[in-house]
Amino acid sequence: MSATDESMVTDETLSVARQAEDHITSLCCPKGGLKGAIVLLVGTKAVEDAAVLSHIMLLVSEAQEKRASIEATVDRLTTVFVFLFVSTSAVVLNT
């Protein structure tokens, strides 16, 4: 039996107790650090692009690249509003 820090994915602040054959989503370091006497053998089922953390990073990246339709509408309205505001200000200041 050991405990793992899975806060990288789960944001759980406490270590999680693990036994043989338990599923581990992510692993930062066994409790006790590398100096501890705890031995934890871990087998991997998914690495790199297939890993949970890689999938989360991909979803976040895609979400940041996409623009909401309301955002595009607001950008167009802001452009028109700024143009009208500056034009009106110039006319008022010149008269």
**Unreliable residue stretches:** none
Percentage of residues in strands:
5-15%
The percentage helix is 40-55%
Q: Strand tally, please?
A: 2
Rg, nearest Å: 26 Å
Q: Could you give a short description of this structure?
A:
The chain is mainly α and 95 residues long. The chain contains 3 helices and 2 strands. It has a domain at 2-67.
Walk me through the structure.
- This protein is mostly helical.
- It has a domain at 2-67.
- Helix content is 46%, strand content 6%.
- A two-stranded antiparallel sheet has the order 1-2.
Give short descriptive properties of this protein.
mainly alpha, two-stranded antiparallel sheet, 2 strands, 95 residues
Explain the layout of strands and helices.
Elements: E1 2-4, H1 7-10, E2 16-18, H2 52-65, H3 69-94
Antiparallel strand pairs: 1-2
